[in-house]
Amino acid sequence: MLGKLVALFLLVSAILAAGALYYLQVYWFYAEVTPAPGQDVLLMPLNGEMPEPVSYADFTAIDADSSPIRYRACFTTTESLDRLRATFVEVESVTPRNAPGWFDCFDAESLGRELEAGTATAFLSIKNVHYGVDRITAISRGGNGYVWHELNDCGSKAYDGTVVGEECPPRPAPES
């Protein structure tokens, strides 16, 4: 009888731990981003050093302090995709990162297909928004926009343990 109680206790503990781990990863760490009108959607101009704002509406975003690549945002814009392509820096070979299922405006799989088909274009928004992480903004022909964070070359090297090299800026000191 005692063995059955111990087994039941272990099973219940494992189920509770798995549920808590799932909840923490999918819901707990994320927070809604408070919109900052005129500052939420920025794109890097072709011949510029500083990102410039783009007109947008219906902005919603989530972020988490636990990782620099958890940022996701959605918005709409009336800007012409052709004008944006002629004015701002495009990025190639990016793959949108999945968002939590409850953040339903951001569908990484569908956006990835649009980028491959050329019905959406990805732009550099902010270089090194965090060390080794760039903010990417993709805009579709229909005016839907999506934002996520992507590791750049320095970030990929830094986070996989490869020697970073001289072409990358020094890593910032850890915050105390």
UniProtKB/TrEMBL annotation:
Name of a matching Pfam family: DUF6446
UniProt superkingdom: Bacteria
Annotated InterPro entries: DUF6446
Name of the featured protein: DUF6446 family protein
